[in-house]
Amino acid sequence: MEVGEMAVKKVNDWMLFFYIEAAEFNYGSTVLIQDHKAIVFDTMECVANGKRVKDYLQDLGIDHFTVVNTHWHFDHIGGNSLSAEIHCSKTTTLSRPPYPVKEWNRIRN
Predict the structure, then answer these.
(1) Distance between CA atoms of 101 and 65, rounded to whole angstroms?
(2) Residue 47's CB: how many other CB atoms inside 10 A?
(3) What total of structural domains would you count in the chain?
(4) Residue 65, domain extent
(5) How far apart are CA 65 and CA 72, in angstroms?
(6) How many angstroms separate the first and last alpha carbons of the chain?
(7) DSSP assignment of 20-81
């Protein structure tokens, strides 16, 4: 996988993990699916990548999206404008980069 390329990992029949390896940080979004609905946890770092996630899901027949932001860092809310229903955590305690490379490699493998 090249830097900047988005990959999708099917965790099981109802969960997908989208991720992008970038130069300094890695970005990810977890999606839970049931029927034609999806709960999207975090929407990547920009509208373009959030749209890539949404387009992928729409190709699967999903037409209802609920976004849950774990916190307000840019890399978690970038694609929020693509959804009308957004829920946010009341805490914003994370003060370190979103995914240290060592942890990122553990999550995505």
Answers:
(1) 29
(2) 15
(3) 1
(4) 18-79+86-91
(5) 19
(6) 13
(7) EE-SS-EEEEEEEEETTEEEEE---SSHHHHHHHHHHHHHTT--EEEEEESS--HHHHTTGG
User: How many other β-carbons are positioned within 10 Å of the β-carbon of residue 26?
Assistant: 21
Tell whether 42 is covered by a domain: yes
Q: How does DSSP classify residue 4?
A: T
Domain presence at residue 10: no
Residue 34 domain-assigned (yes or no)? yes
Q: Give the tokens for residue 37.
A: 């609905």
Residue with tokens 């995505």: 108
Residue 101: inside a domain: no
CA 43/CA 74 separation, integer angstroms: 9
Contact in structure between 54 and 64 (CB atoms under 8 Å):
no
Q: What's this model's pTM, rounded to 2 decimal places?
A: 0.72
Question: Over the stretch 27-77, which tens digit does the pLDDT of each residue have?
Answer: 888 999 999 999 988 888 888 888 888 999 999 999 998 888 887 777 777
